[in-house]
Design a protein that fits this description.
Layout (H helix, E strand, L loop, with lengths): L17 H10 L4 E8 L5 E7 L4 E6 L7 H16 L16 E3 L2 E7 L11 H18 L12 H14 L5 H23 L15 E2 L9 E4 L8 E4 L7 E2 L3 H4 L6 H15 L13 H18 L5 H5 L6 H19 L6
Helix pairs in contact: 3-7, 4-5, 4-8, 5-8, 5-10, 8-10
Length: 346
């Protein structure tokens, strides 16, 4: 999938050396002591930097061309609204009246460093607590729509990624036909629900109330700190980079795991907490498997679109092989079955 190392042009992020990161911080009056740690991020580049006074900040350098400046600033504004409402989200610092700063070919933001670990999602008390804070995020998110950021829909997360992958001939010929057929069957099933009408029609993405979401609320984007003697601690939410319009259930389903019985109990705990602050439309539970299917298709296209970035072949060496795509075919068939089952109830 790659040009040879001798002919491949340098990726833009290749110029983001430690000195460049420190120079960017210095350009906004933050002077590092030389200690930098690269944090886990593939879409952007994110670094923890220790400043001369011993405090720590997180510098985020945005991937060029992914979001417009207006879309990035809309994410920052959403984070500011959440923090103003005392929701434990981590947003960028305002420095010289700005949250987004230019440096060379990059735009970057700086946030306060917050420690923590992934939440113990097999603990129902943790799930209930997380559900309460998700409801508070959504209460803020429902106050007004995004103007510049897109919505999670069938076209952008399903149809367009499928068409792009096929148009670029990125699926090996020995599995291309099977993947196309499975992908088409899955998307046709989602589209058929979207077109259903009347009492017998299925609740679908177009029926759902759209609001501003975290958008990528998996366990890695929730940091948990133990309670201190003043009762401070619990979950805080990081990385609003994928914030967009969508149904509330999008921020819940990625926190579910295990078999159907386990997921049902987890969902019950999440909603016990969620509904202490905000009502939840139970009909949205029918969207869990369609949303999972769309994420599966979108994820493959995301990996393929980013393959020229050297960090992707290093971290996803299994991507692109016939075995990978055969695995995707199997998962799509599983999703087709799952979408035809009764949705979870809680």
């Amino acid at each position: 999938m790659n040009p040879s190392p001798d002919t491949a042009p340098l990726h833009p992020f290749a110029t983001l050396t430690p000195d460049a990161v420190l120079d960017a911080l210095a350009s906004v009056g933050l002077y590092g002591d030389g200690r930098l740690m690269a944090l886990s991020s593939y879409e952007n580049r994110v670094y923890q930097a220790t400043l001369e006074d011993g405090s720590r900040v997180v510098a985020k350098f945005y991937r060029s061309g992914r979001w417009s400046e207006a879309q990035i600033l809309e994410e920052h504004a959403f984070a500011a609204e959440l923090m103003a409402a005392e929701v434990p989200a981590v947003g960028p610092l305002v420095i010289d009246g700005r949250t987004l700063h230019p440096h060379g070919d990059f735009q970057f933001s700086v946030s306060p460093w917050r420690g923590g670990r992934q939440p113990e999602l097999d603990d129902f008390e943790v799930l209930e607590w997380t559900g309460r804070f998700l409801a508070r995020i959504h209460a803020v998110g429902a106050a007004r729509p995004f103007t510049h950021r897109p919505a999670l829909d069938l076209q952008s997360f399903g149809t367009e990624p499928r068409d792009w992958l096929l148009a670029h001939a990125l699926i090996p010929l020995d599995v291309q036909s099977a993947w196309r057929e499975a992908c088409n069957a899955a998307l046709d099933l989602i589209a058929a629900d979207a077109q259903s009408t009347g009492a017998g029609g299925q609740f679908c993405l177009k029926n759902a109330t759209m609001l501003r979401l975290h958008g990528d609320c998996h366990p890695g984007n929730i940091l948990w700190t133990p309670l201190d003697e003043w009762g401070r601690g619990g979950p805080h939410f990081v990385d609003l980079d994928d914030a967009r319009m969508g149904p509330a259930v999008q921020d819940l389903w990625m926190l579910l795991s295990g078999d159907r019985r386990q997921r049902t109990h987890q969902l019950g705990a999440l909603l016990d907490g969620y509904e202490q602050f905000r009502p939840f439309d139970r009909r949205e539970l029918a969207l869990i498997e369609p949303l999972r299917t769309l994420r599966l298709i979108h994820y493959s296209a995301w990996l393929a679109r980013r393959w020229e970035d050297p960090i992707f072949p290093i971290n996803f060496p299994w991507f692109g092989s016939s075995d990978y795509w055969r695995g995707q075919v199997d998962m799509l068939h599983e999703q087709i079955e799952a979408m035809q089952e009764e949705p979870l109830v809680a």
